[in-house]
Amino acid sequence: MTKEKPILVISSGAGISAESGIKTFRDADGLWENYPVMQVASADGFRANPALVHQFYNERRKQLIHAQPNDAHRILVELEKDYDVYVITQNVDDLHERAGSSKVLHLHGELMKIRSVSDPDYIESLDIEHLETSPETRGRRGDLMRPHIVFFQEPVPMIEEAARIVSMADIFVVIGTSLVVYPAAGLLQCVRPGVPIYYIDPNPASTAGVSDVTVIRKTASQGLRELKDILEKGK
Ligand code: APR
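# adenosine-5-diphosphoribose complex -> structure
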């Protein structure tokens, strides 16, 4: 009978991928790679100009395949030795998976996947040779396909599962998110009373009203190195 590992739940945002060279959203005053976010990441934007949205995500995929996981992603994998680690991410990149995290839940979709316009449960993975899509792209089944991204103005199907996971946490760590986008930001409310929360961000949002929060005002990799020491000492 192996000793149960404590459950460590991570909630990561764009900040954890910043050190991999992927721009965050709000550090560029609401522009995402020079596009207004609502033009390329909302249901209205997709209806208005699907070709632009497909092109935008084609550009993001080309950027992503040249990006590598950074130390922050790798430290989360190392923590799996001593903890049952669940990663809940707002990021659509696959850097957590490429670093080796074994349990990753994407709240806002996945850049390297596309899904049927008419059947959201029909999803296909893109490979390096076929990164580009257009409004005319069809899947193997013949469906017209779209980026597998949760646009603004669309529901977040995985939020209930994410809340269930957070409610099991023995430790909850928020990394690199401005905590402005709901329902993701609301996961803080799902932590059981008394469970320690750590928030790693060089420019952290206010966590007023949330108890048991330790803010580590550092980058993701520096902050996770510090957290690893804190957890080691606390064992
Ligand atoms: N290490 C850690 N955090 C960092 C770093 C870094 N090196 N650099 C920046 N940050 C922090 C910023 O201080 C900020 O708090 O990362 C956060 C990035 O915030 P946002 O750009 O708002 O990204 P995020 O919170 O993930 O956005 C949420 O909004 O645009 C939508 O769907 C999109 O998933 C995204 C959601």
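# post-check
The mean pLDDT is 95.
Residues 41 and 151 are 5 Å apart (CA to CA).
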